[in-house]
Amino acid sequence: FRKWPHPELVLVPDEIDDRMHPGRMGVQFYGLTSFAYESGYIGLLWIFRTGSGGQIYVQLVSSRDGINWTRAEAKGGRRPAALPNGPDGSWDAGCLFTSSHPLVEGDTIKLWYGAWDKDHRKPDAAITGRVGLATLRKDGFASLDAGNKTGTVTTRRLKGLGGRLSVNARAKGGALAAEVLDADGTVFPGYSRTECNRVSGNGIDQPVTWKAHKTLPVSNKPMRLRF
């Protein structure tokens, strides 16, 4: 504790924030609750609309090292809220403050949060605070969505793959198939999409199998998965 590193700026508002919430003061980051999750970090970023409403809501950020953070991709010029304010007059219409980390119970992520019914500009005596609970399917912080057209995603080279393959997917009304590729992108015999027993249900741990295989191929070299 005798020596401390110099503070390092890791997250700042950008031009997308300014366009979403214009005003003289624009957007400030009021807080960040981050927690380790699987092989990285998930963060719940408190967005303070200083110039356009005085509300605080929550966006999602992620990181591999706790220093370099990736923010949600903007769609139509706007970043989605991970935890939005309630409608005007509701108990959580004003400001939201997340707990340090959520709890995972079975197939559900549970996040407790504090909420004000008024925005940050109101005097304290006019504000009522309450505690809320938000829920999410396990590992459901983000998703890849194909819509009405066939979508394809191929992983990077993965080391140490083996055993059973399972997916967290909602495929009702469609189907999900998987292929196993070697490091050069060639499909392993018996592991093509046409030989895959397609997944068509909704669940966080659905097994993926092929006509002649129930598990992934055995290899000491990196492999790729294509969904």
Break the fold down into its secondary structure elements and pairings.
Blueprint: H1 15-20, E1 27-37, E2 40-49, E3 56-63, E4 69-71, E5 95-98, E6 103-105, E7 108-116, E8 129-137, E9 165-170, E10 179-182, E11 196-197, E12 202-210, E13 223-226
Antiparallel strand pairs: 1-2, 2-3, 3-4, 5-7, 6-7, 7-8, 9-12, 10-13, 11-12
Write structural notes for this entry.
With 227 residues, the chain is mainly β. It is 3% helix and 36% strand. It is built from 1 helix and 13 strands. The strands form 4 sheets. Strands 1-2-3-4 form a 4-stranded antiparallel β-sheet, with no helix packed on it. Strands 5, 6, 7 and 8 form a 4-stranded antiparallel β-sheet that branches. Strands 9-12-11 form a 3-stranded antiparallel β-sheet, with no helix packed on it. It is elongated, with a radius of gyration of 22 Å. It starts with 14 loop residues before the first helix and ends with a strand.
Major sheet details: 4 strands, antiparallel
Number of helices: 1
Share in β-strands: 35-45%
Mean pLDDT: 93
Unreliable residue runs:
none
- Total count of strands: 13
| Gyration radius, rounded | 22 Å
Strand line-up in the sheet with most strands: 1-2-3-4
State the share of residues found in helices, binned by percent. Answer: under 10%
